[in-house]
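New to this. Please check both lines:
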Amino acid sequence: MNILIAGAGYLGSEIARQASPAHHIISLTKSGENNHHPCDLSSPDQVAHFSRNHPTPDLIIHCASSGRGGPPAYRSVFIEGCQNLITTFPTSHLLLTSSTSVYHQTDGSEVSETSPTHPIRETSQLLLQAERIVLAAGGTVARLAGLYGPKRSAILRKFLDHTAVIEESGQRILNQIHLNDAASACLHLATRKLPGIYNISDNHPTTQLECYQNLATHFGKPLPPRGPKNTSRKRAWTHKKILNTKLRASGWTPSYPSYLHAISTLI
């Protein structure tokens, strides 16, 4: 297949690695650095210009980042970006990598793709708008849990540099997905052109306390101190258990079913 990866960052690069050489990969970034094609997804002219010089892709995987920007960046990258891709490539199947931050639950309940989504943060509300655009076009929405992988794990970094804090009783639930599994799940859904919403998370959501206990045992270090819950996180403070039942029922299996299974890959 011809696969267009719109946003070849941390996740997009891993998707490209796993998809090659079985598929023909074309990747876009806003800057065009590192041999990617330059294209600002929020510009209909730039997306149209790209289309005139390349074959129509069978699949488009939108995994561009907001660059840690606020609502204006989210509107440009996700809403305008998805609309421009759909308008320019109406016959291509589009997969949008969204986020489980659209779920607002704080009561520790189990959350599936049919659970209510009433996020407080404007950025998550904008993600929902982008999702509706993709779903209306028959595309796929992949709601990713907290992404981690080699050289990128905030939990491990804070544990090792002694800045980690166990919030209150430590019972807040962490939902995560390893980079390799996130990429394989996106490819699984995209290449099968499975429409609808899918949660991409590992098999074992864990409490914050349990996660740090596992790290303490693995590294032979003491547990972090306890403190108040952090309500100033970039993502809103949530407490929920993301279920990946629908994704696994489609035939996908994670290589790292829990964070504990993946610790050795992060060093």
Summary: Residues 71-88 form the longest helix (18 residues).
